[in-house]
Design goal:
By secondary structure, this protein is an alpha+beta fold. It has a single domain (10-144), classed as Histidine kinase-like ATPase, C-terminal domain (Heat Shock Protein 90, 2-Layer Sandwich), CATH 3.30.565.10. Helix content is 33%, strand content 27%. Strands 1-2-3-5-4 form a five-stranded antiparallel beta sheet, with helices on one face. The longest helix is centred in the middle third of the chain and has 21 residues, at 39-59. The protein starts with 9 loop residues before the first strand and ends with a strand.
């Protein structure tokens, strides 16, 4: 039997302001505690989540207006999978295909800024996907958190 889509177990609406990362961190910690997410999976999820939301806040908008960033968390109990959807109305941008692999061996002083957050997503998430629909970016991160 396949699991169908479920309602988010937590829905958070953030403003495009880096101060909102504290609220995101607190909400995720509560979510992770409630669902007993193991420490390593928790660290991977939180790192990737914060990096992707910070990228939207920093680079996603062409104006200085206030925008909403929706973050939905879902746990599929049978498979112990966490699914996070990040939705924003910023400019169309697929970080999974438009951000090159960073030069990890380069000296810090000479290495270009950026790309590490997407690298973490590629390394730590079991699945990641991007869609642009109805004028919104949707980045989905999926992580199996074990038994």
């Amino acid at each position: 039997m396949t699991e169908g889509p479920a309602e988010p177990t937590l829905r958070l609406v953030l403003k495009n302001d880096s101060f909102e990362l504290g609220r995101l961190r607190t909400a995720f910690d509560d979510f992770a505690d409630r669902h007993r997410i193991p420490d390593q999976a928790r660290f991977h999820l939180q790192l990737c989540l914060e990096e992707m939301v910070l990228n939207v806040i920093t680079y996603g908008f062409d104006d200085d207006a206030e925008h909403e960033i929706h973050v939905d968390f879902e746990v599929r109990i049978d498979s112990r999978t966490v699914i996070v959807n990040i939705l924003d109305d910023g400019r169309r941008f697929d970080p999974l295909t438009e951000v090159p692999q960073p030069e990890l061996d380069a000296e810090l002083e000479g290495r270009p800024v950026g790309g590490l957050g997407v690298h973490f997503v590629r390394q730590f998430m079991d699945e990641a996907s991007y869609r642009h629909e109805r004028g919104k970016n949707r980045l989905t991160l999926t992580k199996n958190v074990g038994p």
